[in-house]
């Protein structure tokens, strides 16, 4: 069939992406027949490199592949933020290709410190990071990758506004990339090595996810927002509950949500460890595409549905689940019964309904003074979010009340900033004393120089509309209790300056002694006229690749260093390894490779490795960032790792559950590998991190019996049994550890489990995925 629209209302030829999607989907249908599919499956399976091989790899095909088959996928594009793009591009450069085989973009958002306000902070940020931005810009020009300069916006907001269209599959080198699932894409957060695979055209491998259906009914009440859906869900599922799942929202309640609201819920799916999250294409999606000046994309999506309908029932691709599609798990949420939630501190799954928050604060003896309220970020800076906050600010202004806590606003992109400026929303915030930060991550990722100068170690409470709240994440102060809420709750509570204030039930007192109660927040889903593009200097630089451009890296740079390939796996099992440190408690990617001030070394592996595991808790002593050498001498963990690297002493780490939770940060895998780690043994891993380890040639093993964690300690000598054989057999076979106790010389055998696929076994044997890819080019 000619690939043109059959709709009576719309005409025209559909773009090539939909032709590919249609052809692949037809193949999926040929293999699966009339089996009912979820929306996530339709899009995901239509991006398989080899549909038949993947879908039939688990005998019965279809639903039975979930959680079992290894899918080999061909994503449509790759989006990279500046911190992770450095390593991704350094890796891409070693593959010697003239340009990526799929479109890609670079977003300069993570390196700007938020402090005094957008203009000043941006100038300072550019001066400090010029070298890195020059590198990224020159690499963008050389390889024809879109370059969004500092100040242009935060990756997920920019992607949502510019690149996300229904039916796409994207990879993003950031764990909150699933934000774009709000616009009916499959977007997965990955490390740089995965991004490089997609950029060079190698199929990208993913264990077929299970599907967790979230059926929404009802309609949100006045003070409740889509953020509360995910804050509530995070509490129900915990930080590990979504591991191995795609979260797919459906049901009548979906139709009541705004598009940015859906994106917010998808964004924070990362907090439950989900592979990604997705919403169907709704009228709100259509309105958002038009508001962001993409009327054609809206027409294309609708025409595509109509086109596929014309080809018969089996190939009818609607951007929602088939009637009767099965979910592996099902959760129902009645939006009408949901109340605002506040999650934290220190973990996003400690979810507390607003009505119980005051009691909890008092019982837990958390600080009652709120020192700062921060709204915006990639999670919550939509027009709707900001205008709802504006209505609260205006009401307080009229009553003569100012925020009692510091109040910061981070627009997600230049587009949203310029639109909010045009419509006077930002001016309202500033008039109230709010500080508008640059269109960048800032305090969300530890890039925050606080105005109140609270000394490190001082307990204090802050409330943000961000997505993540690990200890120390925002200001580097381990005693800052960081709570997450919707922007409207953050704003109202910033006015009260109190963690015990409930804006729905409580009142403030105006300067003239009157009682003031906040009105219910009211905002506009989108601007009445389409979004502004904003200032010229913040527009994207795109172009054709130019091989004559020199990629800018100074040999004396402290920020950037070309990569040396890692050594290959020996032709035998590993022996003579020592346990560098046995870690207890949470060990997130922030623990393994801290952000904040370390972000500046993202492109310099030796320098950033100085932070390796520097907030990990030693299981034997309870000390933070302490490891003991075999002679009993005390060191920081990275110091000892460096010494062992110099001595040629390979090592391993022992840890507890969900090791590597949090982000796609591949440095958390690269650094231990660079310093000499060969295996990591844990009670369980976070998905992205486990994959990242294998890509860098580190073997992730889990205890077959988790109590065996107690049998192995720091300093013990370890040899693997069966590991080499397993790798040679493409991931088939069992691996155990022979542990010789440091103190007694006693030998214990510990059984382990692994999830090494055939391809991953190849990476590990080659030394890293990159070694293998570089060989292929
Ligand atoms: Fe930036 Fe924070 Fe969003 Fe990550 S979660 S992209 S650090 S704003």
TrEMBL record:
InterPro entries: Acnase/IPM_dHydase_lsu_aba_1/3 (IPR015931), Acoase/IPM_deHydtase_lsu_aba (IPR001030), Aconitase/3IPM_dehydase_swvl (IPR015928), Aconitase/IPM_isomerase (IPR050926), Aconitase_4Fe-4S_BS (IPR018136), Aconitase_4Fe-4S_dom (IPR036008), Aconitase_dom2 (IPR015932), Aconitase_mito-like (IPR006248)
Keyword terms: Iron, Iron-sulfur, Lyase, Metal-binding, Mitochondrion, Transit peptide
Cellular component GO terms, alphabetical: cytosol; mitochondrion
Top-rank lineage group of the source organism: Eukaryota
Protein EC: 4.2.1.-
Biological-process GO terms, alphabetical: tricarboxylic acid cycle
Keyword Transport: no
A Pfam family recorded for this sequence: Aconitase_C
Cofactors required: [4Fe-4S] cluster
Domain Aconitase/3-isopropylmalate dehydratase large subunit alpha/beta/alpha: 66-497
GO MF term list: 4 iron, 4 sulfur cluster binding; aconitate hydratase activity; metal ion binding
Subcellular location, record wording: Mitochondrion
Co-factor binding details: Binds 1 [4Fe-4S] cluster per subunit.
Domain Aconitase A/isopropylmalate dehydratase small subunit swivel, first and last residues per copy: 579-706
Entry annotated with the keyword Lyase: yes
PANTHER family: ACONITATE HYDRATASE B, HOMOCITRATE DEHYDRATASE, MITOCHONDRIAL
Record family assignment: Belongs to the aconitase/IPM isomerase family.
Protein name: Aconitate hydratase, mitochondrial
Species the sequence originates in: Neurospora tetraspora
């Amino acid at each position: 069939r000619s690939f043109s629209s059959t709709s009576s209302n719309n005409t025209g030829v559909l773009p090539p992406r939909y032709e590919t999607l249609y052809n692949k989907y037809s193949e999926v249908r040929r293999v699966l027949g009339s089996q009912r599919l979820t929306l996530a499956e339709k899009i995901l399976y239509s991006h398989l490199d080899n549909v038949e091989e993947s879908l039939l790899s688990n005998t019965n095909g279809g639903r039975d592949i979930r959680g079992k088959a290894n899918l080999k996928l061909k994503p449509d594009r790759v989006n990279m933020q500046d911190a992770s793009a450095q390593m991704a591009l350094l890796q891409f450069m070693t593959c010697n290709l003239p340009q990526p085989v799929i479109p890609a973009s670079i977003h300069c958002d993570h390196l700007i410190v938020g402090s005094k306000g957008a203009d000043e902070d941006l100038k300072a940020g550019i001066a400090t990071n010029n070298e890195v931005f020059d590198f990224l810009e020159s690499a963008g020009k050389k390889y024809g990758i879109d370059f969004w300069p500092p100040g242009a916006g935060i990756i997920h907001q920019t992607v949502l506004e510019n690149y996300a269209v229904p039916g796409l599959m994207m990879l993003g080198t950031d764990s909150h990339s699933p934000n774009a699932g709000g616009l009916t894409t499959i977007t997965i957060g990955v490390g740089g090595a995965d991004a490089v695979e997609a950029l060079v055209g190698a199929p990208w491998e993913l264990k077929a996810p299970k599907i967790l259906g979230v059926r929404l009914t009802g309609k949100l009440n006045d003070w409740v927002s889509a953020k509360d859906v995910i804050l509530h869900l995070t509490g129900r599922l915990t930080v590990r509950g979504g591991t191995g799942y795609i979260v797919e929202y459906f049901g009548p309640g979906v139709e009541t949500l705004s598009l940015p609201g859906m994106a917010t819920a998808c964004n924070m799916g990362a907090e439950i460890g989900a592979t990604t999250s997705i919403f169907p294409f709704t009228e709100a999606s259509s309105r958002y595409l038009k508001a962001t000046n993409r009327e054609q994309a809206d027409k294309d999506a609708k025409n595509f549905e109509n086109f596929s309908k014309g080809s018969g029932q089996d190939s009818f691709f609607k951007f929602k689940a088939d009637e009767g599609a099965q979910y592996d798990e099902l959760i129902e949420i009645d939006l009408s019964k949901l109340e605002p939630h506040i999650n934290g501190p220190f973990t996003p799954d400690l979810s507390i309904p607003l009505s119980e928050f005051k009691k909890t604060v008092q019982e837990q003896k958390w600080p009652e003074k709120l020192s700062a309220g921060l709204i915006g970020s990639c999670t919550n800076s939509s027009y709707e979010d900001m205008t709802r906050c504006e209505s609260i600010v205006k009401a307080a202004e009229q009553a003569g009340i100012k925020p009692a806590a510091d109040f910061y606003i981070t627009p997600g992109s230049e587009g949203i900033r310029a639109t909010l400026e045009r419509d006077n929303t930002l001016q309202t915030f500033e008039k109230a004393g709010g500080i508008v930060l640059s269109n960048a991550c800032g305090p969300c990722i530890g890039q925050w120089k606080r105005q109140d100068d609270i000394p490190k170690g001082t307990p204090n409470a802050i409330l943000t509309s961000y997505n993540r709240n690990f200890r120390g994440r925002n200001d580097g102060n381990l005693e800052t209790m960081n709570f997450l809420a919707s922007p409207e709750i953050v704003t109202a509570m910033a006015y009260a300056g109190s963690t015990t204030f409930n804006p729905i039930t409580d009142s403030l007192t105006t300067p003239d002694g009157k009682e003031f109660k906040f009105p219910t927040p009211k905002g506009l889903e989108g601007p009445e006229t389409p979004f502004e593009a904003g200032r010229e200097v913040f527009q994207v630089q795109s172009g054709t690749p130019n091989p004559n451009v020199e990629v800018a890296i100074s040999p004396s740079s402290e920020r950037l260093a070309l990569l040396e390939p890692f050594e290959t796996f020996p032709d035998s099992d590993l022996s003579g390894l020592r346990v560098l440190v046995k870690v207890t408690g949470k060990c997130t990617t922030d623990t393994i490779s801290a952000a904040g001030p370390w972000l500046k070394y993202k492109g310099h592996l030796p320098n950033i490795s100085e932070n390796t595991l520097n907030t990990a808790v030693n299981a034997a002593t309870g000390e933070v960032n302490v490891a003991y050498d075999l002679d009993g001498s005390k060191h920081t963990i990275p110091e000892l790792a460096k010494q062992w690297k110099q001595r040629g002493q390979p090592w391993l780490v022992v840890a507890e559950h969900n090791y590597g939770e949090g982000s796609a940060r591949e440095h958390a895998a690269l650094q231990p590998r660079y310093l000499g780690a060969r295996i990591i043994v844990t009670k369980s891993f976070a998905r992205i991190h486990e994959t990242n380890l294998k890509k860098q040639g580190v073997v992730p093993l889990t205890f077959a019996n988790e109590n065996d964690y107690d049998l192995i300690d720091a300093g013990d000598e370890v040899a693997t049994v069966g590991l080499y054989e397993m790798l040679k057999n493409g991931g088939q076979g069992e691996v155990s550890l022979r542990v010789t106790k440091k103190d007694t010389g006693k030998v214990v055998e510990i059984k382990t489990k692994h999830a090494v696929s055939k391809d991953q076994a190849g990476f590990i044997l080659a030394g890293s995925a990159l070694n293998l890819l570089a060989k292929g080019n």
